[in-house]
Design goal:
Layout lengths: L12 H29 L25 H36 L2 H16 L2 H12 L3 H28 L2 H8 L4 H38 L10 H8 L7 H30 L25 E12 L6 E12 L3 E5 L6 H8 L8 E3 L2 E4 L2 E2 L5 H11 E4 L3 H4 L6 H12 L4 H14 L5 H4 L9 H12 L6 E5 L7 H18 L2 E6 L2 H7 L2 E6 L2 E7 L9 H8 L50 E2 L5 E2 L18
Helix pairs in contact: 1-2, 1-9, 2-3, 2-5, 2-7, 2-9, 3-5, 4-5, 5-7, 6-7, 7-8, 7-9, 8-9, 13-14, 13-16, 14-16, 16-17
């Protein structure tokens, strides 16, 4: 017989105390009314308001009924009312808090504004006001307190849902054209369930106290029914002559509230220590890889791309009039310092830039189709099947509550019409294609069971589920060690060769790009300042590109002197200087550079450069080194 393994985090005295308290409460609620109901209702005229004695350990009430027996019997109703209150509050709060995610911007703002107003109003005062509307009695008390609890649960739901809604895997689902209600059900609600459950467990004690308070004030449970609050109302008038009568329900409320607070803390530990259990499917050889249609020679053609974001006092554009072309099977590296607009360009190409940012362009052709001529559903269908996004952080790109195989197979189910079984088989095949060992086993695991390199491979496999013609890899190796970094780069190169897909590799590290790219685009202050073949990097003619190349140490670098640096900092997009944006940091800049913006023109290395005073191909320049 298998032994039940208790997580180490809960093998402590506090956990045992919590289990004991909960067990006592549950058994008391179940067995108390069965065995003590008659004793709790029995009148003893000779012992009216009697103090504590052997026959009545906590004395009797005004009618001579045993207080201890009544306290035990009242456990069921008291706990039941508290649980019902919290359940209604959680369900309604989750619905209200999720509504802004599903509705449009304007309707969502109205809901959030109403929610903020309700949160600002004290809960107990709101409950008292609602009790006058719903009427006295157990039902009115439950409804009043449930409505009073809704704002707090809705605020928690909205806060956590807003964070999840900005995750990369939700952005990917939007790119696939997944309906909002499906995103809410599959990606948002499962990921916010944990804090809601933990908070709800802790709030049972608060609900118990609140319901008891309403009963004590006369708005809750009415005679002949009774809960702990009703017993307090009967016992407190005699607190000086018979304090034991009020002590029993008070102790019960305190212990029950403590039990649920401890249960919430224990549940937090349990959920934090959880490990996904999975079954190992039968190992089967995957079917032959689906043939991929070789895309047109020109996979992507973007002209005049501009991204505008709100600013104070006026909007500004981190990406300005950018032209971009990628061909089938080509790997194009986009490099530049942080803030140059690389990632924003990638998300704009994938139509993932959300409100309030604005994206405009003169031409945006993908696989020969002009996206501006398509309606929304057709555009999302094309993007969902033709573009694959590989994000910097694979853990944020994968939904932690859904198994990896299921996340991959959903793409084929939605866009290729496959059955669940066929889609899962293709997911296993894609995992095998990116060199993940035991893909049948791994498909049944959660992302947290993958290493960083495996998660990045799984993210690439997800992009290959729908046979994309364009793969956008945004800093795919930043968080990986050197060995895994080389494996991921080699994988991207192999995918481009085998599928014919074009790859846009975003990176701040020009050395990484130089390893696999065919062509390099150098961005500075939202513009492309140089475009050249990767083998011509050492002959770059733009001073900024040459400075980037020079700043990369190699085996011949003199370690006795500081590394080469680029003086100054890139300008903020909202404060871009007139003329060439690199002029304030450039030794070759003249007066004309500070007045006019250079255009991209043909250069001697076979590419293009935007510079009034480019460096001659093959020429050397002095290297600036840090202090």
């Amino acid at each position: 017989m298998a032994r039940i393994r208790i997580p180490a985090r809960i093998r402590n005295p506090l956990a045992y105390v919590t289990f004991v308290l909960l067990a006592v409460l549950v058994l008391t609620a179940i067995l108390g009314p069965l065995f003590l109901h008659d004793r709790a209702e029995a009148f003893d005229v000779a012992a009216l308001q009697a103090g504590a004695s052997a026959a009545h350990p906590f004395g009797t009430d005004a009618l001579g009924r045993d207080v201890l027996a009544r306290t035990v019997v009242a456990t069921r109703l008291s706990l039941w009312l508290a649980l019902i209150t919290v359940t209604i509050g959680v369900v309604c709060g989750a619905i209200v808090g999720s509504v802004p995610v599903v509705l449009g911007r304007r309707a969502g703002r109205l809901v959030v504004a109403a929610l903020n107003l309700m949160v600002a109003f004290p809960g107990l005062l709101l409950a008292l006001f609602l009790a006058m509307i719903f009427g006295v009695g157990a039902r009115g008390a439950v409804l009043s307190m449930a409505v009073a609890f809704v704002p707090s649960f809705a605020r928690l739901t909205h806060t956590t849902a807003s964070g999840i809604a900005n995750a990369d895997y939700v952005s990917a689902a939007r790119l696939l054209g997944t309906p909002r209600r499906v995103i809410l059900r599959r990606h948002i609600l499962p990921n916010i369930a944990e804090p809601l459950i933990v908070n709800a467990t802790s709030q049972v004690g608060a609900a118990l106290l609140s319901i008891s308070a309403l009963s004590y004030l006369g708005f809750g449970v009415q005679p002949p029914s009774y809960d702990w609050g009703r017993m307090l109302a009967d016992g407190l008038p005699f607190i000086y002559t018979n304090p034991a009568a009020a002590l029993a329900p008070t102790l019960a409320i305190v212990l029950a509230g403590l039990a649920f607070v401890l249960a919430g803390e224990l549940l937090t530990q349990l959920l934090g220590d959880r490990r996904a259990h999975y079954t190992v499917p039968t190992a089967t050889e995957a079917t032959s890889t689906t043939e991929v249609d070789v895309p047109e020679a020109q996979v992507l053609n973007v002209r005049g791309l501009r991204v505008t974001v709100p600013g104070d006092p006026v909007p500004f554009s981190p990406v300005l009039d950018l032209d971009l072309t990628l061909r089938a099977g080509e790997i194009v590296g986009v490099v530049g310092e942080s803030g140059s607009g690389k990632s924003l360009t990638a998300t704009a190409v994938g139509h993932l830039v959300g409100y309030p940012n604005l994206v405009t362009c003169d031409t945006h052709r993908l696989a020969g189709v002009e996206l501006g001529t398509l309606d929304r559903s057709a555009r999302e269908r094309l993007l969902g099947t033709s573009v694959a996004m590989v994000f910097q952080d694979p853990m944020s790109a994968l939904n932690p509550t859904v198994k990896v195989g299921r996340q991959l197979s959903e793409i084929s189910e939605v866009h290729q019409g496959m059955s669940r079984r066929a889609a899962l088989e293709r997911a296993v095949d894609r995992l095998r294609a990116v060199r993940i060992t035991q893909p049948e086993v791994r498909a049944g695991q959660y992302p947290l069971e993958f290493s960083g390199g495996m998660r990045q491979r799984a993210a690439i496999a997800m992009g290959l589920m729908a046979d994309p013609v364009l793969i956008i890899a945004d800093e795919p190796t930043t968080a990986l060690d050197v060995t895994v970094q080389q494996e991921v780069l080699a994988l991207l190169r192999r995918v481009a060769e085998e599928t014919g897909a074009a790859v846009m590799l975003i990176s701040h590290d020009i050395a990484v790009v130089s390893e696999i790219a065919n062509r390099v685009l150098v961005m500075y202050a939202g513009r492309i300042v140089e475009e050249l073949p990767v083998e011509q990097l050492s002959s770059a003619t733009h001073p900024y590109t040459r400075a980037l190349v020079t700043s990369i140490p190699d085996m011949t670098t003199d370690r006795s002197v500081p590394l080469a640096t680029i003086p100054g900092r890139p300008p903020h997009p909202a404060a871009r200087p007139a003329g060439c944006a690199f002029a304030p940091r450039c030794d070759r800049a003249g007066s004309g550079c500070r007045e006019d913006e250079p255009e991209l023109e043909a250069a001697g290395h076979g590419g293009r450069v935007a510079c009034f005073h480019p460096i001659a191909v093959g020429a050397t320049i002095p290297v600036r080194r840090g202090a």
